[in-house]
């Protein structure tokens, strides 16, 4: 019996297609391994801070943004939410390194509980010996300035709401393996 798991589908392959825009980072790269500074302490991480993100080319009618990070390769039935940040103003086009882990956020923006149970960024923590996991960072350009949610909403409920308000999305998928 093989212990290898097949790779889970990319979460955005299962949702209606949306236009894309540029999402970049000075610290993580699509398809490349992340540095240990973005890894949870329990998995041997250094500082467990959220990476820098910068975006452009989103639709002119964008009224707000949300940022998420999801690991579809987690050994669960539902993946693993590492970061859910909502109600970013439309004027926001960049988040500094560490913004999700105690750094400064734009006025009105707030974190929703991740799957660690924290209202913040929660670093990568794949099981020892697993193949590299994909950490799907997405910035969602929204047709509303705020999602009508509180910080007690679940990540899945935020995702449900994003499905109805996302105009376009920028995505990068860095990797990490323990």
Order of helices and strands: EEEEEEEEHEE
- Helicity, as a percent range: under 10%
Uncertain segments of ≥5 residues (pLDDT<50)?
none
Task: Classify the beta-strand content into a percent band.
Answer: 25-35%
Instruction: Tally the beta strands.
Output: 10
User: What's the number of helices?
Assistant: 1
Shape: globular
Q: Report the biggest beta sheet as strand number plus sense, adding barrel if it closes.
A: 5 strands, antiparallel
> What structural class do you assign from the helix and strand content?
mainly beta
Q: Note the gap between the termini.
A: 23 Å
Strand order of the largest sheet: 6-4-3-8-9
What oligomeric assembly is this protein in? single chain
- Taking all residues together, what is the mean pLDDT? 94
Radius of gyration computed on alpha carbons: 15 Å
